[in-house]
């Protein structure tokens, strides 16, 4: 069964059933990938498959809309549109602008 490593979440590793959806597994196991719509519309779940891109299924049309060609070439996927056939390691950007970021953001502002 595929192992998912959530790099941005301290390297947490979970084991997922074959053909499982990346975002669904993240939700179930508290992997921490950000999301909003869960349906390939918002782009919030954008993540980088740092290892195991060959273990993911084909890039969907919705992903081609929300990701640039370059991003797709680099291995970016929308977690809610990605299904797994084998081990992957994923990272993502943590809430870029503070906003309602989750706990655990330790980014002191440098004083000018
Ligand atoms: S959660 Fe909105 S595109 Fe994946």
From TrEMBL:
<protein>
    <submittedName>
        <fullName>2Fe-2S iron-sulfur cluster binding domain-containing protein</fullName>
    </submittedName>
</protein>
<dbReference type="InterPro" id="IPR012675">
    <property type="entry name" value="Beta-grasp_dom_sf"/>
</dbReference>
<dbReference type="InterPro" id="IPR036010">
    <property type="entry name" value="2Fe-2S_ferredoxin-like_sf"/>
</dbReference>
<dbReference type="InterPro" id="IPR006058">
    <property type="entry name" value="2Fe2S_fd_BS"/>
</dbReference>
<keyword id="KW-0274">FAD</keyword>
<keyword id="KW-0285">Flavoprotein</keyword>
<feature type="region of interest" description="Disordered">
    <location>
        <begin position="93"/>
        <end position="112"/>
    </location>
</feature>
<dbReference type="InterPro" id="IPR001041">
    <property type="entry name" value="2Fe-2S_ferredoxin-type"/>
</dbReference>
<dbReference type="GO" id="GO:0051537">
    <property type="term" value="F:2 iron, 2 sulfur cluster binding"/>
</dbReference>
<dbReference type="Pfam" id="PF00111">
    <property type="entry name" value="Fer2"/>
</dbReference>
<feature type="domain" description="2Fe-2S ferredoxin-type">
    <location>
        <begin position="2"/>
        <end position="96"/>
    </location>
</feature>
């Amino acid at each position: 069964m595929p192992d998912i490593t959530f790099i941005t979440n301290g390297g947490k590793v979970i084991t997922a059933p074959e053909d499982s959806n990346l975002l669904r597994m993240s939700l179930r196991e508290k992997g921490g990938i950000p999301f909003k719509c869960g349906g390939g519309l918002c782009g919030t779940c954008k993540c980088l498959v740092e290892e195991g891109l060959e273990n993911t299924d084909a890039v969907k049309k919705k992903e081609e809309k929300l990701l640039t060609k370059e991003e797709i070439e680099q291995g970016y996927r929308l977690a809610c549109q990605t299904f797994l056939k084998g081990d992957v390691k994923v990272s993502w950007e943590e809430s870029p602008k503070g906003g309602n970021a989750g706990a655990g953001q330790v980014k002191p502002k440098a004083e000018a």
